């Protein structure tokens, strides 16, 4: 039996609220399916570059996040290109951008290495 999941729209709004509590700018760049759309997170660290995180499941089936653009920040145009290609494949995909030079994303509790 699978674990219950929040609707995508509710999850996105809660994530943005968690950022707002810490005065971290975050906003929806692209809306996806309100019920079951997957979510990409674009962390914009300013001059240090960007990271894109995608939702994954680990070997035990637990929810986690993975750096889709690799272990190091990339230029913003590369992050945007990755996001554009992902949305071309899955138009139900949500995209949330978080802007924080320190790399804080309060709702990414579990990030897998690799």
Descriptive overview:
It is a single chain. With 114 residues, the chain is of the alpha/beta class. The protein has a domain at 27-101: 3-Layer(aba) Sandwich (hypothetical protein tt1805). The protein is built from two helices and six strands, in the order αββββαββ. Strands 1-5-2-3-4-6 form a six-stranded mixed β-sheet, sandwiched between helices. Strand 3 (50-57) and strand 4 (63-67) form a beta hairpin.
Shape descriptor reads globular
Distance between the termini: 28 Å
Q: State the total count of DSSP E strands.
A: 6
Major β-sheet strand ordering: 1-5-2-3-4-6
CATH architecture of the domain at 27-101: 3-Layer(aba) Sandwich
Mean pLDDT: 91
- At the third CATH level, what is the topology name of the domain at 27-101? hypothetical protein tt1805
CATH class of the domain at 27-101: Alpha Beta
Low-pLDDT runs: none
Percent of residues in helices: 10-25%
Report the structural category: alpha/beta
- What's the name of the CATH homologous superfamily of the domain at 27-101? Protein of unknown function (DUF1491)
Q: What percent of residues are in strands?
A: 25-35%
Number of helices: 2
Radius of gyration: 14 Å
Main beta sheet: 6 strands, mixed
Order of helical and strand elements: HEEEEHEE
